[in-house]
Write a structure and sequence with these properties.
The chain is α+β, with helices and mostly antiparallel strands. The chain has six helices and 15 strands.
């Protein structure tokens, strides 16, 4: 089908014409057409940097194993010793900014993440049923997590009535530069989406790198809608559909799918930081998570 015909069919009777894989790919097409800044995205990220962008002194990264295999690990180091990107990097970067650990550069497909159950928490490719995980299409934003945070799977959200996903809180960075895997960069929190994935609460903090040319113009959700229209809806739809090619249901969003304010994002970040502190002081059971 032609692109225009496909879009008409998708928006009218999507399930009649497409299976999950086609639907997700069609969603990617619509996002590319709708997001003004997608065309400026860098297709491939730079190699992993030896120095971090953030003000984390004398730190570096080192790769072990081969990319695209189960053996691949990206370790974070202080001198010759391994450190944890989850526990050792401070959450706050000063001036109201947060440090973000980037796991997946924009326009890539490998599902990389901080390995919370492994010693030193290196970045590794996620596995499902014995297979390395890849997205079925590229993600259009830099994706990572905020260190020293944790979404508590033992605590029910009072409004959404679901529990945390047992991971550091996710961050979706909407700037123009592709952040290489292992980059740690100060970001400004602009809003947050309450995604519900398989019954678990999986917050998505929307942020922009402090170094991005747009950073001074963006302070809250309304600024994103005005200066970068389509970005928030694009993020919401990408995460709504991305698991459907694997015959998984659509992901949902709490609070009537609203992207909540920057102030609320900071409250959520602080709540997850306090939960992480509970892991550290032993007041919350860590289960199989690796702690310092």
């Amino acid at each position: 089908r032609s692109l225009s015909a496909s879009l008409v069919l998708i928006t009218s009777h999507p399930s009649q014409f497409y299976g999950p894989v086609e639907m997700f790919r069609a969603t990617l097409i619509m996002l590319c057409l709708g997001l003004g800044r997608v065309g400026a995205f860098v297709v491939a990220a730079k190699p992993a940097p030896s120095r971090w962008v953030s003000k984390v002194a004398a730190s570096s990264t080192a790769v072990e194993g081969e990319a695209g295999t189960e053996s691949y690990r990206l370790f974070f180091k202080e001198g010759k010793a391994n450190i944890s990107p989850w526990h050792d990097i401070p959450l706050e970067a000063g001036d109201g900014l947060y440090n973000a650990v980037f796991e997946i550069p924009k326009m890539t497909k490998a599902k990389m993440e901080v390995a919370t159950k492994e010693e030193s928490n290196p970045i590794a490719q996620d596995m499902k049923k014995g297979k390395l995980r890849d997205y079925h299409g590229p993600i259009f934003w830099n994706y990572g997590c905020l260190p020293q945070t944790w979404e508590n799977p033992n605590e029910e959200h009072p409004v959404l009535k679901c529990f945390g996903d047992d991971d550091p809180i996710d961050v979706v960075e909407i700037g123009s530069e592709a952040m290489a895997q292992g980059t740690v960069a100060p970001v400004k929190a602009l809003g947050v989406l309450a995604m519900i994935d398989d019954g678990e609460l999986d917050w998505k903090v929307i942020a922009i790198a402090a170094s991005d040319p747009m950073a001074d113009e963006l302070n809250d959700v309304a600024d994103i809608e005005e200066k970068m229209p389509g970005t928030i809806s694009g993020i919401r739809e990408w995460f709504r559909w991305y698991k459907t090619p694997d015959d998984k249901p659509l992901n949902g969003f709490g609070f009537d799918e609203e992207c909540l304010s920057a102030a609320t994002a900071k409250e959520v970040i602080e709540e997850t930081h306090q939960a992480w502190k509970g892991l550290q002081d032993g007041s919350i059971d860590a289960g199989k998570l690796w702690l310092k």
